[in-house]
């Protein structure tokens, strides 16, 4: 960024402190069900999985190699990759904004982009948990960094970095295809883009990206295109009677996840891109508008999960670097404050809310004590079994002294040991699940007292406990079951 004036050094110190706080919180909070599930991925490496590509498993595995099979190990790469992604966005913003005589404004705008990005709940809280959004955010930042150097600073070879980021982003989450589609539109629909198409560099970037995505494509080809069909199956959803409700959820979710003031900066950044309409502004605008159109189209037929548009936050933060409103620090600090409120609620629960209103209670509340209680009520040498992937994964992590079985079709896609037909076990079944134990898999032998998962006396969920025998009505039925690796104490 040039110069390195001391007056800007405190922003770097602030980023380091924020990263440290995130690491402490990551070590302290219990794993959510999805995180415990991704831990299983990390211990059963593959080129893909039923729900997503493989990169989140790599992220968790790298962290576990450094910090052990612990909550911090699973999450370690989240705060670290967010820190690196912030540096990339700040540098990309400075390169984009810098011109002769505007060095000071470029530095301020670059810092603004990094601070606003971290002020969103999508990044501020999202980096505390390990999800596919964690690696994809880093690779979107790397993509933007490469594009700035290629298209603004004319370093043509940086297109290869763009291809690398595109491929690894696809390996992280399929929503990476949306900003990439915007890039392709820019290449073909604008004059500056078509100038690049006359060179070999975009083709080279595409080749690098294809090489990076080969493991995911190969895994899907060998598993009936399971992951592609699961995610792509949502495209045809159509429910116009609820479209207005879904659209409201989409807008409200983004106002909340970006935080209200930062959302205004994002909208203003998009407006300035349109007002400028120079080559790089149009590139960023294409990378934003096309995904927004896709999300709006999807909201006409089904719910858009609030975290899906988070893939656009680095692009929006870069666009917001040009928004010179003086209250950008207040907007960011409001975001940090809201993240702090959520963390305080998770830690101390000053406000007693039902699990319907308290997402921290619903997701991470009481798992360690619950697993210990279930284990204590089950005779030794009998395995625990669950037909919810998240519940099974939590038991595998927090009841490491027990063998844990997961029974669900998704386990057929994992290279994990299979339980024996006719084995006796103890089934843990959430009261949120309707109906008795699935008779295809379980013969009920006895019923034990219910178990509760609670935090500070507030019940998150109640579970039935059954003594069962595993059934195998057809040869190979237990392909839908797996023995899950426990937490190595």
Question: Would you tell me the overall average pLDDT?
Answer: 90
The order of strands across the largest sheet is 4-5-3-1-2-6
Number of helices: 21
Shape: globular
Number of discrete domains: 2
Kindly estimate the percentage of residues that lie in beta strands according to DSSP.
5-15%
The beta-strand count equals 6
Would you identify the regions where 5 or more consecutive residues have pLDDT less than 50?
none
Q: What kind of oligomer do you see?
A: single chain
What's the helical proportion of residues?
A: 55-70%
Structural class: alpha/beta
Rg from alpha-carbon coordinates: 24 Å
Major sheet details: 6 strands, mixed
Cα end-to-end separation: 45 Å
- Tell me the series of helices and strands, N- to C-terminal: HHHHHHHHHHHHHHHHHHHHEHEEEEE
Q: Explain this structure to me?
A:
Helix 1 packs antiparallel against helix 5, helix 6 runs antiparallel to helix 17 and helix 8 runs antiparallel to helix 9. The protein has 2 domains: 341 residues, no CATH class; 122 residues. The radius of gyration is 24 Å and the shape is globular. The relative contact order is 0.11. The two termini are 45 Å apart. It has a 6-stranded mixed β-sheet with strand order 4-5-3-1-2-6, covered by helices on one side. The model has no long low-confidence stretch (mean pLDDT 90). It has 489 residues and is α/β, with parallel strands linked by helices. The longest helix is centred in the middle third of the chain and has 22 residues.
């Amino acid at each position: 960024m040039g110069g390195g004036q001391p007056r800007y050094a405190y922003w770097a110190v602030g980023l380091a402190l924020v990263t440290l706080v995130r690491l402490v919180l990551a070590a302290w909070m219990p794993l959510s069900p999805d995180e415990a599930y991704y831990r299983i991925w990390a211990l059963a490496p593959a080129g893909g999985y039923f729900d997503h590509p493989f990169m989140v498993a790599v992220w968790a595995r790298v962290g576990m190699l450094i910090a052990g099979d612990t909550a911090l190990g699973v999450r370690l790469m989240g705060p670290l990759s967010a820190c690196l992604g912030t540096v990339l966005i700040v540098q990309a913003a400075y390169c984009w904004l810098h011109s002769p005589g505007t060095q000071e404004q470029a530095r301020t705008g670059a810092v603004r982009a990094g601070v606003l990005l971290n002020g969103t709940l999508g990044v501020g809280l999202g980096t505390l948990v390990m999800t596919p959004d964690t690696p994809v955010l880093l690779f979107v930042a790397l993509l933007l960094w490469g594009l700035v150097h290629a298209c603004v600073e004319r370093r043509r070879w940086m297109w290869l970095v763009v291809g690398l980021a595109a491929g690894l982003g696809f390996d992280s989450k399929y929503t990476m295809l949306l900003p990439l589609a915007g890039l392709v539109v820019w290449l073909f629909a604008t004059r500056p883009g078509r100038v690049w198409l006359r060179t070999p560099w975009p083709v080279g970037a595409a080749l690098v990206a294809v090489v990076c995505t080969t493991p995911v494509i190969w895994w899907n080809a060998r598993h009936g295109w399971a992951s592609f069909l699961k995610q792509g199956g949502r495209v045809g959803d159509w429910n116009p009677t609820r479209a207005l409700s879904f659209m409201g959820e989409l807008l409200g979710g983004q106002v909340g996840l970006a935080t209200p003031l930062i959302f205004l900066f994002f909208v203003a950044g998009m407006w300035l891109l349109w007002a400028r309409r120079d080559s790089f502004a149009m590139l960023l605008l294409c990378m934003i508008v096309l995904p927004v159109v896709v999300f709006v189209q999807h909201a006409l037929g089904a719910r858009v999960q609030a975290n899906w548009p988070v893939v656009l936050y680095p692009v929006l933060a870069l666009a917001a670097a040009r928004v010179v409103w003086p209250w950008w620090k207040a907007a960011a600090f409001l975001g940090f404050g809201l993240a702090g409120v959520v963390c305080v609620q998770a830690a101390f629960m000053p406000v007693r809310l039902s699990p319907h209103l308290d997402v921290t209670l619903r997701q991470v509340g009481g798992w360690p004590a619950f697993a210990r209680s279930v284990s204590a009520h089950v005779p030794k040498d009998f395995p625990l079994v669950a037909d919810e992937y998240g519940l099974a994964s939590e038991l595998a992590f927090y009841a490491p002294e027990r063998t844990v079985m997961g029974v669900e079709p998704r386990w057929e896609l994992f290279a994990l040991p299979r339980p024996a037909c006719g084995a006796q076990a103890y089934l843990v079944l959430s009261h949120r699940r309707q109906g008795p134990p699935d008779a295809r898999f379980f013969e009920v032998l006895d019923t034990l007292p219910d178990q509760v998962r609670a935090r500070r006396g507030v019940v998150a969920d109640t579970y039935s406990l059954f003594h069962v025998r595993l059934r195998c009505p057809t040869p190979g039925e237990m392909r839908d079951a797996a023995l899950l690796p426990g937490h190595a104490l």
